[in-house]
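Example 3.2
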Amino acid sequence: MTIIRDTGTEAERIKRKQTARLAEIKRDAPKRLKMFERVFAGAASASQERKAFCFECQGLDAQGVRECVAYACPLAQEAVSEKVETRSNMKITINRIGRDALEGEAESLFAFCEKHKKDLRGADLSNADLSNADLSGAVLSDAVLSDAVLSDAVLSGADLRWTDLRGAVLCGADLRGADLRGAVLRGAVLCEAELRRAYLDYASWPLSCGSFNLGATDDRLTAQLLQHTLHVVLANKSEYGKTVVKALLPLQRFHGFRNDVKRIGKEQP
């Protein structure tokens, strides 16, 4: 029997195990990948570290984490103690671009944002953890949410015009009817996000894996992205390009949603 020993320093062995684990998480629970990357890099908040541990404990099952009744777990007791200690005396200040800072007290940034969601225009919430927050109808235009975690957050009907969402994690977020005109989505992760009736005119759509596996879209967004794709393909003069153009031309619909958009090519019979 041959025994293969893991060679290298302890740090190297841990790094290899973390890399292998991230590959598994990317395959089995991609919406949690960003959180685990932060934890392994030592850049996560205490609440994110607890959340990652809970997901590991429950085999990456979100429902299992939500329904966990292991109240004797030290992490659960720690979270409750932290919440009780800070419930009445946590002072929160959110800087706002071109406006006075928003100040007040709340048990957490999460609760503060929910309470003041109509007054977050220009707010600097970069790197904030707002997972599962109810920000429906929130006014977040011109806000900075770069690298924020908004997994499973409710943002239906929210005003997100010209918001900086670079690198934000929006996995499972409810963005139905949200106004994302001009939003910067470069590097954003949108897996399982709900985008029906959302407006993304003038927004920067992420051409990365983060825009794969969307939760739901609608005819307008489909027609809009198809129109832009068609303009790109028109510049490709190869046989492949011509084949794609021929296939896409009859599928144009965006001119039906916006009268300032012209149909490409001849009208179909």
